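Data deposition worksheet. Section B asks for the primary sequence of the deposited chain exactly as it was used as input, without tags or linkers unless they were present during the calculation. Section C holds the resulting structure in token form. Section D is free text for depositor observations; keep each observation to a single sentence. Incomplete worksheets are returned to the depositor.
Section A, Depositor: J.P.
Section B:
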Amino acid sequence: MVKHAFTGKAPNVAKKEGPEPVKEATLLNTFDEFIKGFAKLVQNKKRSDGTMRHWRTTRGKVFDFLVNHYKKKDIYFAEIRPSFGDELYEYLTLDAGSKLSEPTAKGHIKRKLGIVKRIRKQIDKFELTTGDIGLGTN
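Section C:
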């Protein structure tokens, strides 16, 4: 079931009430969804426009990294390896067109991790509503 959620493929499970399965679970799609929701909070004066700019900048840096390092415009969560954060950090501090300082690069990594945690929560909610805890042979 987890594999289906990460790859965006529909599982062979009877439809039940609850959250919809994650569609096209890619890193940048999730960034875009998060930024869209965050923009509403900024409009309602519940979040800062400056923080919004940070999120948009981080998304842009991740996009540049994917294009330059992986030669892709987006990446499925299933393709993200444990070394992804280290590779992104190295790119931001050593290889990017405008290299970043260590603290700035770490801030971008931290925001990227927040996006990964967000998709993990969505998958957990989906598994709880479908009764699948991912222990099958999928």
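Section D:
Confidence is low (pLDDT under 50) at residues 130-138.
The radius of gyration is 17 Å.
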